[in-house]
Amino acid sequence: MTFYSQLVNATLKEKEYLRSSSIVQRCFTGDISLDDYVAFLQQAYHHVKHTVPLLMATGSKIPFDKEWLREAIGEYIEEETGHQEWILNDIAACGYDKEQVRRSQPAMATELMVSYAYDSINRISPLCFFGMVFVLEGTSIELADAAAKSIGDKLALPSKAFSYLRSHGALDQEHIVFFQSLMDRITDPQEQALIIHSAKMFFKLYGDIFHGLTTEHGVKLAA
After folding, report:
1. Domain edges within the chain
2. Which of 122, 163, 179, 205, by CA, is between 20 and 30 Å from 97?
3. CA 116, CA 108: separation in Å to the nearest integer?
4. CATH numeric code, 3-212
């Protein structure tokens, strides 16, 4: 079994925690409000804006015997630059003030996930970041297109309100193929275990963001 396959199998329980969140379940039954969608986008903005800084931090700590991995980080940086602005534009297309979102504070769960990402890169290993990539990219590919269709059908939003979701859906499949090829080059059992542990942590932390969005049906946009 390839390491990527091991990673998938080892994190099924943690993945289900994320998928079991009320907002994900309601999304696919059409029971979702505009406030729900914008609340999701708001928290996405607050973690996506850290993607490039986290990639830079990871690249700076990759050891020289994994230069191929540092080169991959460079490709990721080029691909991910500016995506937080896509999210803000989607929020504006929904009729909300994107600058209000830019100035807002992240939810506690979002701040904790971002904090753990920086901490694990610096305290444990830069390889921890790939647990985050696995969770965020894998979840996006599985759910983004279907979520965009469900939300669009329910709320009759313009297509320009879904640039973030659409860009991270099935059309982004080549990213996960690229990621899989990287993970299958990780052969050291200790490094593999570290990435699996990181992925489990990020499924829980990312899942907490989704579960937190549903503490009240129709979460209002934070000031």
Report:
1. 3-212
2. 205
3. 12
4. 1.20.910.10
